[in-house]
Write a structure and sequence with these properties.
2 domains, globular, 8 helices, 181 residues, 0% strand, Rna Polymerase Sigma Factor, Chain: A, single chain
Length: 181
């Protein structure tokens, strides 16, 4: 397997195979990120495809200057999700039930649905920046340095946002758990 820099350089030279490999390597993470940002699985597929169309159109302008290709790609995804949400004029970002477990046990499915609902309610109490950090860190698996580049913030600011988001989520989920007892 070739390294990412080599693949990007080949894709910049219009190598379709190289771009296809980049697409395969990044599609799932970008799709999960977009799905959580916009809250709709079907729409997320369209938005994710648009992210890669935009990437293909602008890959020749990508430069290796302190930002990784994946951070650049997540920035495109972020912008595409923001554009989508502006068009839809949504205030909240609901979680799609299709993100729940595909387990066949009705009890587990019901428990997963309840957990997702509790998480949705808890995330509504976060700021937009906190939701963004949580999504990039934990659903997309990006390291703090990459999240900082995607969000255009310092690593310290990202760490602070992550910490405050986790504390707020922990508190909100603890209250919800106490109410269920």
């Amino acid at each position: 397997m070739q390294n990412e820099e080599s693949l990007v350089r080949r894709a910049q030279q219009h190598d379709q195979e190289a771009f296809a490999q980049l697409y395969e390597e990044h599609f799932d993470k970008i799709h999960r990120y977009v799905t959580l940002r916009i809250g709709n699985e079907m729409e997320a597929e369209d938005v994710t495809q648009q992210v890669f169309v935009n990437t293909l159109q602008s890959i020749s302008s990508f430069k290796w200057r302190g930002i990784s290709f994946s951070a650049w790609l997540f920035r495109i995804a972020h912008n595409q999700a923001v554009d989508y949400l502006r068009k839809k004029k949504r205030a909240a970002v609901p979680l799609d039930e299709s993100l729940a477990s595909n387990d066949s046990s009705p009890q587990l499915v019901a428990e997963d649905k309840q957990d997702i609902e509790q998480l949705l309610q808890a995330t509504k109490k976060l700021t937009e920046a906190q939701r963004e950090v949580i999504s990039l860190r934990f659903t997309s698996g990006l390291p703090i340095a990459e999240v900082a580049k995607v969000m255009g913030k310092s690593q310290g600011a990202v760490k602070a946002l992550q910490h405050s988001a986790i504390v707020a989520l922990r508190k909100a989920l603890s209250v919800a758990d106490d109410e269920d007892k």
